[in-house]
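ok so I'm stuck.
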Amino acid sequence: MANTTNSITPYLHYADLEAAMDWLAKAFGMRELMRQSGPDKKPRHAELALGETGVVMVGWPGPGYRTPKQLGQVTHNVYARVDDVDALFERATEAGATVLERPADQPYGERRCGLEDPEGHRWYFAQPLA
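replied:
not stuck anymore, here's the structure
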């Protein structure tokens, strides 16, 4: 039997998937693990890594889904832990992320910031204070 690991992987839709993948790499330091393209050679699905263990799946929404920007409302938050929240914040704001929260220490023992990507997905990044 194969070794399995319990995990949760968010799946986010982007109307311009290729641009989103480039932006996520530039802003958040994500790296592409795999990509599947459609008959038109445009990406339709991809997996991106954040650090050594974090993975997010991204896809083109097609006719059945809408991005937060297309809907005009917040649909979710993604919460990720990173090694250096301040460095990530600087990198992301330089790439054009919308600031929701500047990095600040939280009473539950983490330093956190909030950012929004160009298609309206809300990301919160945190690191332990200790």
